[in-house]
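Today's session is about reading a structure prediction critically. Students often jump straight to the picture, but the first step is always the sequence itself: look for stretches that repeat, for charged clusters, for runs of hydrophobic residues. Only then move on to the predicted structure, which in these notes is written as discrete structure tokens rather than atom positions. Here is the chain we will use throughout the hour.
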Amino acid sequence: MSTLPISDYALLSDRHSAALVSSAGSIDWLCFPRFDSPSVFAKILGDSAGHWSLQARRCTRTDRAYVEDGMVLQTMIHTESGMAVLTDAMEVGDSEDPHRLGEWAPHTVLRGVTCTSGRVTLEMCFRPRPEYGVVTPLMNQIDSGIVAAGGSGRLLLSAPGPVSIAHSEATAVFEMAEGESIYLALQHSKLGTPLPKPYSQKQIKTALRTTENAWRHWSDIHQSYNGPWRELVHHSGCVLEALSYQPTGAIVAAPTTSLPEEIGGERNWDYRFSWVRDASFTMQALWVAACPDEAHEFFGFMTAAAAHSRPERPLQIMFGIRGEHDLSERVLPQLSGWKGSRPVRAGNGAWDQPQLDVYGEILDAAFCLRRQLRDLDQGACDFLADLADAAAHQWSLKDNGIWEIRGEPQHFLYSKLMCWVALDRAVKLARQIHAADRAPEWEAAARDIREAILEHGWNEEVGAFTQHFDSADLDAAALMLPIVGFLPASDPRVLATLDAIEEHLMDSRGLLLRYRTDTGIDGLGGDEGSFLLCTFWLAQVFALAGRTDHAREVFERATSYANDVGLLSEEVDSTSGELLGNFPQAFSHIGLVNAAWAIHQAERRARRKS
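Below is the predicted structure for this chain, in token form.
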């Protein structure tokens, strides 16, 4: 059973797939060749599910950081006899266009170690267990490496010096003196395709340098934010780029599956897919953190993936990263789960839920990025107009809401709000998407939604906007009312809702819960941690209300839970402060970017007034 804290991991990505590497130098999660492919290493979910470690003997301490402006990781290893630097990356390939970062990624993990003082002894253990630990591969030694074959793929490990093989596990010991370096590479190929050639030591060294430069060039032309917490915002921009799938522009919610919302609980989900909501929020966050040149890729992906949608049929809420529709969920019984949190799942059963808020998120992103989308093709314009029609026809229906409840559908406030957003933004975009003739109908539907929210979403006895119509339960999603411009942050009802959420949904650490699980609304047992995105929403609303000191306090409280390399999970355990949920989580980094921007803008307005 894996017990290493989630916060101990760092992310590697080539914009096709991702790996998690521990502070001790063990890659305990890797999926090849896509984010949603079955794992090659999954020790984070079960001790016998595979890993690749490079660890120093008599290690006393490690310190690590990403190389500036990218996702190349360096770990400083301190031992009793010397020091070394471990550099880890997933090779992004060499592209002349920084906008196409990862286009020629060869599906390869790169690792290099340089002894910087004294002497260091490294021990390597290479133990792949493909298909979530089901496959025990056959291993054979070749010149300059090891081939591991089993299941639908093959792995080629390029390594210097002699390597021992026993029980489908390769081990080696590397003795290093000051100034010496070793390099390793792990390549993937599909069964039935030619086996790639092993990398030479020089090739791995060059590939690491090329990958570092490629990330730096991407950042140079994208990262334009210059407000407070600039480094955090820029790093979040890199993380969000790392969570995007280069071939299609799809954006995964997280690169992992089944890291739990409660230790030992059942709230364990697969997030390696492209949620319409998360991806739309990500595009808006990239507008703040970076120049969103990838907007056309994203809207092209959405137009193709959701081509089946019609006004009478809800838009599918998530897709595979190549546009797949059927994401049926299954349990992986061979995996014990992180800290014994079962079941471990592949696929996501929420894929066919109706969640009406997605119309608003896509159209809000399109409106935010309207300058970048001036030359959308007619198909994309028709797609956006059809989404507005769908919102106008479906807003009065019940759905499963933003939190994807597995209980009974409800008239969720947030879903109605985002249908209003869809229509409000569609009216403003009507000429640009060649749909001016449909704007009057959209305006009328938006008025109807507004009246319904104000009548049924507000609870006079509670003194707040509530989770769903005519309910007394609170939900942090109500914080979006001022964020999307439905009501000003200064509105007494918004301020009252803000106070109620702080009083009833804030934990002892000052972080927000999404909602109270003991109401049974979500149809699941157990509890969950506090939600970082909601806490960033709180900071954002305080900023919009002009309470910037309070906004800063909440923002810094939330960001204090980032790990040593600036990564955030989905949730935080209210008792222990431990990170929970899939990791790193796009939602949390989106919230960080948007809250920082809101505080920056609020402080600029305050300075102008003074």
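Discussion point for the tutorial: Residues 129 and 135 are 5 Å apart (CA to CA).
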